[in-house]
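#onboarding

Welcome to the new folks! Below is a worked example of what a typical request in this channel looks like: someone posts a single protein sequence, and someone else replies with the predicted structure as tokens. Don't worry about understanding the tokens yet, we'll cover that in week two.

Example request:
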Amino acid sequence: MISVKDGEGTPYEAIKHSGVYGIKKITEDQSKWITACYSYFQPNGGAEMSSSDKERVYYIVSGSVTVNGKGEKHILNPGDVIYIAPGEERDMVINGGRPAEVLVFIVSS
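Example response:
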């Protein structure tokens, strides 16, 4: 088992993201299938349109986030979850001029 306490983890910078501070809670060195990250987004922060070769799940802890895909828009609030398939393009916008916190699970193949 792996236990990571609040405030612990490895800081990281997310590529193509702005106004975000991230902490990897479970890393690739600890698990061969999943990475767990906690992202702290500043008001009006977000992520550019891009895709990944890995599955992702976002769980919204606080704030409001809009995730846009090709021809779709998902407005997410605390407690909401979104699954993003490998290769699926998406961007992210933080709503309402308030910060947001997102728990991100990245699954390796």
